[in-house]
Amino acid sequence: MHRFERKGTVFRNKDALGESYRPETIEERDEEIEEYMEALQPVVDGWEPNNVFLYGNTGVGKTAVTDYLLGRLQEDVEAYDDVDLSVVSLNCKTLNSSYQVAVELVNELRPVGNEISSTGYPQQTVFNKLYQELEALGGTVLVVLDEVDSIGDRDELLYELPRARANGNLEDTAVGLIGISNDFTFREQLDPRVQDTLCERELQFPPYDAPELENILRSRAEVAVVDDAVGSGVLEFCAALAARDSGSARQALDLLRLAGEIAENEDCDRIEQDHVERARSRLEQERVQEGMRDLTTHGRLALLAVVSKAAKQETPCRTRELYEEYTALCDSSGVDTLSQRSVHSHLSDLRMLGILSAEENRSGSRGNYYSYELDVPFESAIEAMEDALRLDAETNAIREIASMNER
Ligand SMILES: Nc1ncnc2c1ncn2[C@@H]1O[C@H](COP(=O)(O)OP(=O)(O)OP(=O)(O)O)[C@@H](O)[C@H]1O
Prior knowledge:
Blueprint: H1 30-45, E1 52-55, H2 62-76, E2 85-91, H3 98-109, H4 123-137, E3 139-146, H5 156-160, E4 173-181, H6 184-189, H7 192-198, E5 201-204, H8 210-224, H9 234-245, H10 249-265, H11 273-293, H12 297-311, E6 317-318, H13 319-333, H14 340-352, E7 356-362, E8 368-374, H15 378-388, H16 392-404
Parallel strand pairs: 1-4, 1-5, 2-3, 3-4
Antiparallel strand pairs: 6-8, 7-8
Helix pairs in contact: 1-2, 3-4, 8-9, 8-10, 9-10, 10-11, 11-15, 12-13, 12-14, 12-15, 12-16, 13-14
The protein binds adenosine-5'-triphosphate (ATP).
Residues 19, 21, 23, 26-29, 56, 58-64, 182, 216, 249-250, 253 line the site of adenosine-5'-triphosphate.
């Protein structure tokens, strides 16, 4: 049996390419930082804070810039005796109502062992408990709600909290809300009254372009990667791939990290473009698998129908035939079937997710029709289906057919 041993020839500090790392410097966001600082200026001047709403795609630095600036702000206000600033931060990802967010905020502010239960109170009682905790803090409190869109339309807290002072719920404490979201539609869906308060100051973070990503990568690689372990053109390649796809710094950093891991596993002491290329394909596959896991039951059954046809080497395959396969799978799993039109719409969603590809066939008088086939490796599709569907007998049978056909 092999034993574990240290490989480390490429990384100096791999954690610096990870999610929890807080960069010392923020690259390429000077304008946004300036605007953000302006919005936070009343805190330093001792006035009531503005509410700020930040939005932009995933990985464009909203959280990193917020952490960085609030850290600075906390340091800088120490010079002023009459400013007493506290910051409470919460990621709302798993919280989908004002009630849940308020409970979490109360518990953030209470000492360990003194938390309240997450169910069983009327909403106003939880809000009152929150006011009590905030009032006990006094001074200025900035409440940062990351991924605030998770709260959905149960957004009363976003309306109430900024008005707490005006409504007499707080006397000694001034609260400012900082909402962060990557859902562009969230702002539009907010109740207009909430929109007015939460979006008092709005900051939009655009996607990064390739040269910007290259600078971010370069400054991070200096901390994370051993000198001379970045091959020629590697940072440029990671930056170009991420810029073309999403403009996300997270994606660029993930590419570099995985490419470094691949290089180390192969006992290379330098990351080369070929490692990046393989990292790209692996990350893409992971993303597709995640996409598959999020499908609805009928989305999965529609996909399984294509997988089954692929095992028989009968793809590309027309919607009508896929529908027959889908109906048989629904029968075996005891699920009611949808109409052919709905299944077609699932197939077309799968195509948008990059899981299927479709070919348009023109058949003259009888109109056009589509033929579908898998656009991801057969093995990853069936593996994801096995995880997601409890259809072991069917997936085993499909596997057997596939192996007979040497897939
Ligand atoms: N301008 C930048 N300079 C240095 N590092 C950056 C910059 N922008 C983003 N990063 C890094 O990229 C990663 C993703 O950034 P961040 O978490 O701030 O994105 P986000 O916009 O908040 O994304 P999400 O909406 O998914 O939470 C982090 O590791 C962060 O440190």
